[in-house]
Design a protein that fits this description.
- The protein has 273 residues and is of the alpha/beta class.
- It has 8 helices and 10 strands.
- The strands form 2 sheets. The chain has a 6-stranded mixed sheet with strand order 6-7-8-3-9-10, with helices on both faces.
- Bound molecules: adenosine-5'-triphosphate.
- Adenosine-5'-triphosphate binds at residues 20, 31, 49, 51-57, 206, 224.
């Protein structure tokens, strides 16, 4: 399915409401409401918004872990009805198998899909190289730093060549310096991975400069229940490296988005009054 821009639509979100039911009272609480937007193939989308606005809830529904209460949520033209191999998730905490080596952790998804043949093993070797873990393939998770663990996590998510990469604050637990390095690494990996060059990605973050640096487009959600306030295209040229953060365009877009997010949180009024 193509939209008006002529680019294939990867994820179609139409009039979506997702929420939770109170176990005791049975009443329904909407975490996100009236969500409507489209994500195109090869787009890198960041979602920002005040704490509790439903970013993780939305990502969980796209992952197929939560049902939608209303609307339509379609991936490649078909409704999302549950988790599937076409989506990979990366969380804040690298959930690696402690008993598996780096290489075996990265190979896990391919193994589960019975795709760890010669091509699969080559894919694992290429990814180890790509994420900068050459020489560490035999190490165990307990021997890795936080940044290294997230590299393994990323490589594992990319290994199966998913249609959609879902990242929920993957760098939030890292120290500031490692986080900066990992942002650069992610854009490099995202651009360089042959199988997944420019793979469609949904990235949740609290960090507006991180969103601007990584994304083709930033979606701003309102305070709870989360609604789409604005979709802001990021026109910074690619490939991007840390120098881009010093450009006036980067600073302008960051400032604009920070203002927008602070308004959603009610923080801007507090600052102004
Ligand atoms: N399992 C759950 N059961 C009931 N309510 C929930 C559940 N998970 C989240 N919520 C509520 O749904 C709303 C949205 O939460 P969600 O975690 O999706 O927001 P978020 O934007 O990701 O938050 P943050 O930025 O703080 O991580 C919040 O009010 C939260 O308390």
């Amino acid at each position: 399915m193509d939209d008006a821009t002529g680019r294939p639509v990867k994820l179609d979100v139409s009039d979506v409401c997702i929420g939770y039911r109170d176990r005791r009272s049975g009443s329904f609480f909407a975490a996100v409401q009236d969500l409507g937007f489209q994500i195109h193939e090869n787009e890198f989308i960041a979602i920002v918004g005040p704490s509790g606005c439903g970013k993780t809830t939305f990502l969980s529904a796209v992952a197929g872990l939560l049902p939608i209460a209303h609307g339509t949520l379609e991936l490649n033209g078909a409704p999302i009805t549950g988790p599937a191999e076409d989506r990979s998730l990366v969380f804040q905490q690298a959930s690696l198998f402690p008993w598996r080596t780096v290489a075996a952790n990265i190979a896990y998804g391919l193994e589960a899909q019975r795709r760890l043949d010669a091509a699969g093993r080559q894919r694992v070797a290429d990814l180890i190289e790509l994420v900068g873990l050459a020489g560490k393939e035999g190490k165990y998770p307990r021997e890795l730093s936080g940044g290294m663990s997230q590299r393994v996590n990323l490589a594992r998510a990319l290994a199966t060549d998913p249609d959609l990469l879902l990242l929920d604050e993957p760098f939030a637990a890292l120290d500031a310096q490692t986080r900066e390095v990992m942002q650069e690494e992610l854009t490099r990996i995202w651009q360089a991975d042959e199988a997944g060059a420019g793979k469609t990605a949904l990235f949740i973050t609290h960090d507006v400069p991180e969103a601007v640096f990584l994304a083709d487009r930033v979606l701003v959600f309102s305070a709870s229940p989360g609604r789409l306030v604005e979709s802001v295209p990021i026109d910074l040229p690619r490939p991007r490296n840390r120098d881009v953060k010093r450009s006036p365009e980067f600073m302008d877009q960051t400032e604009y988005l920070l203002d927008l997010v602070m308004r959603q949180s009610g923080l801007r009024q507090e600052v102004e009054s």
